[in-house]
Design a protein that fits this description.
The protein is α/β, with parallel strands linked by helices. It contains 7 helices and 10 strands. Among the domains are: 128 residues, Rossmann fold; 66 residues, no CATH class. The structure holds adenosine-5'-diphosphate and magnesium ion.
Length: 285
């Protein structure tokens, strides 16, 4: 895999690199947050009774911030992401994206789920361009951009291949390209590498870090991997078991661009330790 520093400039995704920890206001009015969650609760009616997935959750994410969300399985992470995406309505509370209330799905977002959801009848590039077709945008004008993105994730030679001809990691790279092709200011990712082996995960995380360091996107990234969260993020929030509450809100001030070697550093280990301790404590309490 190509190291981040060797990657060519990403014209398709962004312009210049940005200081990701600085407040870069790209969405909404100056001073607004990219994502504002206030008093958010979500209850599901199930056969076994009422399940409270989220209860009075508050969160503000700066524009341009890469936020990871970690927490035990079933604590409400996916529910939070789906509500932020407008795919699921909250029971109470509000979500604003770019200063606008989220009441239904919107187009200015890229979403990547654990399952890549590629259409088997379409080639890699056709799957990426599906995003453009669905939005009624001129497909021809985006072909070069799609090729450029494929190149950035090392898939130039696989543009014409069908999903069944691609490995799991390649398929997920294609779905990341599909989430980025329309250059959305917000990227929502729900355990996007969850189905991949450890080595592929590392490689693709490196690709994502590289793409995001050069773009001005706000990212909400849900993961089970603490190490992945610290590696990729400007900020990590740790949630408790259901109903999810934020027990730790940590800024990751490790310099960028980040390299895989940094994962062995003391400062990286220190961040990991803090999160691990919390998750472990909660599990045993
Ligand atoms: N559509 C649904 N109907 C009923 N219960 C649901 C639904 N979606 C999620 N839940 C429940 O809400 C809780 C949180 O789920 P989820 O957000 O998927 O957790 P996580 O992503 O953290 O693993 C779980 O107990 C889950 O069973
Ligand atoms: Mg989930």
């Amino acid at each position: 895999m190509v190291q981040p520093s060797e990657r060519p400039q990403i014209a398709a995704v962004s312009a210049a690199p940005v200081e990701r920890n600085s407040v870069v206001q790209l969405l909404g009015s100056p001073g607004s947050h990219a994502i504002t969650v206030k008093g958010l609760s979500k209850r599901f009616q199930t056969k076994a009774g009422l399940v409270t997935a989220l209860s009075d959750l508050n969160l503000a994410v700066d524009s341009g911030q890469f936020l990871s969300v970690v927490g035990p399985s079933g604590c409400g992470k996916s529910t939070l992401l789906k509500i932020v995406a407008g795919l699921v309505p909250p029971s109470s509370g509000t979500v604003e994206v770019g200063g606008k209330a989220v009441v239904k799905p919107y187009t200015d977002v890229g979403i990547v789920f654990q399952r890549d959801l590629l259409l088997e009848s379409r080639t890699a590039i056709e799957n990426i361009l599906l995003q453009i077709e669905m939005r009624g945008l001129p497909v021809k004008q985006y072909v070069d951009k799609a090729k450029d993105l494929l190149e950035k994730v090392g898939l130039t030679d696989f543009s014409g291949k069908y999903p069944r001809e691609l490995s799991g990691g390649m398929r997920q790279r294609v779905s990341i390209c599909r989430a980025l092709i329309h250059d959305p200011p917000l990227l929502l990712m729900d355990e996007p590498f969850g189905a991949l082996d450890a080595l592929t995960r590392d490689e693709i995380a490196l690709d994502l870090a590289w793409l995001c360091e050069r773009s001005r996107k706000t990212v909400m990234f849900i993961t089970h991997s603490i190490s992945e969260a610290v590696f990729l993020s400007d900020r990590v929030i740790v949630m408790t078991a259901r109903p999810a509450a934020i027990v730790k809100d940590m800024i990751v001030d490790i310099a960028r661009p980040r390299s895989i070697e940094q994962r062995d550093s003391a400062e990286f280990e220190q961040h990991l330790h803090q999160i691990r301790e919390l998750l472990f404590q909660k599990r045993n309490s």
